[in-house]
Predict the 3D structure of the following.
Amino acid sequence: MTSRKSTVLVADDDPHLLRLVQRNLELQNYLVVAVSDGPSVLRYAAVEEPDLFVLDVVMPGMDGQEVCRRLRAFTLAPVLILTARDSEADKIAGLEAGADDYMTKPVATRELIARVRALLRRAKVYARGAAAPLFTTGELSVDFTRQAATLHGTALNLTPTEYRILSYLAHSAGRVVRQDELLTNVWGPAYHEEAHLLRVNVARLRQKLEKDPGQPRYIVTRPGVGYSLVREEMPPAQAVPPARGDDPRHVILP
């Protein structure tokens, strides 16, 4: 039985680069959908389910960062941003838009393929979930099978990277996880020194988890070491006296 090919949607307004990326990904046995503008990405994604998006930042109609923000409203598929700007601020802007990774142009083909493989591999690993299907601390629950989290019973709108951070911390709840360990396990070994990736995504995750992100209840920082997900028990339910009709001493016989 042959495995299903992964579908990669590539968007870039440079026709030469678009053909180059498409050809090299197809040589690696990926199904590639190539478009040249932002709105086309959203139109395709609304009816199909690509496994991964490769988005240029500068595109007609809508830039890659805005496309990424809109994708995050309805898909958890990984997003790789391509940018000609290599400043940390530009990279952080892409990550804050919901991207999982970025590459600076000119694109090195072998590196692009390696990053695509890594993103798809991590997505599949997290999709399989863990032996324990559910982790709960306080009012926060992480469902490893569904790759979802809820707070006070309400679903959290997490990006794939945010979910992977939360999931990894949940597996290590109560233990301080070093920054390099998180970076290696969430992004890959090549990212073990990319501390800004972690700072941006943890800050964004706290905005969704914490009542007061400045005084976090769940994800706490251990200065100079890393992060820890607090393990806390649900408060015990208040004992409620049974209603008169439910009390066996007051059963009304027919």
